[in-house]
Amino acid sequence: MTFEIRSEDDLFQAIALLDGGEWPNDQEVRFVDWPRYEITIRGEDFDGGLPTRIIPVLLKLQSTVKRAYSRSIYGEVRSRLPYADLKRTELIVCLDPGSTAFTFDLVPVLNHIVETVARKMTGKEITITILGVTAILVGGSVLKTWINAEARQRGIDSPVRLSEQETEQCQILKNMEEQYPDVAEHCADMKATYGELVKRLEGNDRIFIGGEEIVSGSIGKRILQKEQTIHAREHLDADFMILSLKSGEVHAGFRSRVQDIVSGEIFELFIPQDALSPREIELLQSSEWKKEPRRMRIEVVRAGKPTEKARLISVSPATKFDD
Questions:
Q1: DSSP 8-state assignment for residue 35
Q2: 34 CB contacts (<8 Å, ≥6 apart)?
Q3: C-alpha neighbours within 13 Å on the C-beta side of residue 22
Q4: Residue 193 CB burial class (10 angstroms; 0-12, 13-18, ≥19)
Q5: Which residue stretches of the chain have pLDDT < 70?
Q6: How far is 257 from 308, CA to CA, in rounded Å?
Q7: Rounded alpha-carbon distances, angstroms, from residue 89 to 51, 106, 153, 193, 268
Q8: Residue 233: CA atoms inside 13 Å, Cβ hemisphere, count?
Q9: What residues are paired with 233 via a beta bridge?
Q10: How far is CA 278 from CA 192, 244, 248, 266, 272, in A?
Q11: Phi, psi (5° rounding) for residue 256?
Q12: At a CB cut-off of 8 Å and minimum separation 6, what does 194 contact?
């Protein structure tokens, strides 16, 4: 008994049957005249041609398809695939006046995966993983949810809207990512590919899937803009334990890692030459040897990292220790 998949609706119906435990044990899946990976870019530089800035995207996309294929067939990502596998996963770029369409017939590739895996093993998990991979490779909802997530993170009004059906499909894929590690890895690869694509768009370029505009280059630049790191300075007076102390690394001065014995925070401490008196340097060195804390006044520059950078202003015996 064979379940034929001819459309995205068939795909998600099969996933629902598998997820609901209604998939017969002897039922196989076969793709018929669907799917095709297709994404179109329109813009001044896409009048039947391909600007070189897009070539890295094609290489990234090719790598994503190969990785998905390799995981499905061999259970791991292989750096080298046999020639026959390379030919099966080769992308074809179609050029049309006014746009560039990236198209790839996935039917023979997916059916080959199904037939190959079926000879080795059977089971719900294998079938649903293959279906999950298909949904990730061809579904525009993955790109839409990625764009929305990036926009939301930066406080930008979401440039695309998901239909009720797409929202349900995204939830299905999210559930699959949580249950099946292979699906999560495929999805991460595809999101990285979309990131590479959006990054290389010019302001007036536009991406279309299924005739629907998904994102423009101007919006893409905004959602991929790196967030500015906020640096905050403050002075701390506390007892610190010296975790390490190395000389000669900062203009013949010192570099040290210290830990606040109360809060547990760790700081990268920079101590330029002549910043401390001989007595203070002796206190630092004896602290490392004796594993005793020292009272320090440091200037901290916070940038949201677990290990903060700081400058040592002064050092003295710790509150509870006498030298």
A1: -
A2: 5, 6, 7, 8, 10, 107
A3: 7
A4: buried
A5: 96-97, 120-123, 226-231, 247-252, 273, 303-308, 320-323
A6: 10
A7: 23, 8, 34, 16, 48
A8: 3
A9: 301
A10: 53, 19, 16, 25, 13
A11: -140, 150
A12: 142, 143, 146, 147
Q: How many C-beta atoms surround the C-beta of residue 273 within 10 A? A: 12
At which residue do the structure tokens 């040592």 appear?
Answer: 312
Q: Tell me, what's the pLDDT at 153?
A: 81
Distance separating alpha carbons of residues 290 and 76, to the nearest angstrom = 50
pTM for this entry: 0.66
Question: What is the model's pLDDT at position 252?
Answer: 59
Per-residue pLDDT reduced to its tens digit, 61-74: 899 999 999 988 88
Enter the tokens of residue 199.
């990054």
Token pair 């669907």: residue: 34
Residue 146 CB partners (closer than 8 Å, separation 6+)? 191, 194, 195
The beta-strand segments (E) located in the chain are 2-5, 28-31, 36-42, 92-96, 99-105, 206-209, 212-216, 232-247, 254-260, 266-271, 294-302, 307-317
The length of the chain, given as a count of residues: 323
Task: State the DSSP code for 250.
Answer: S
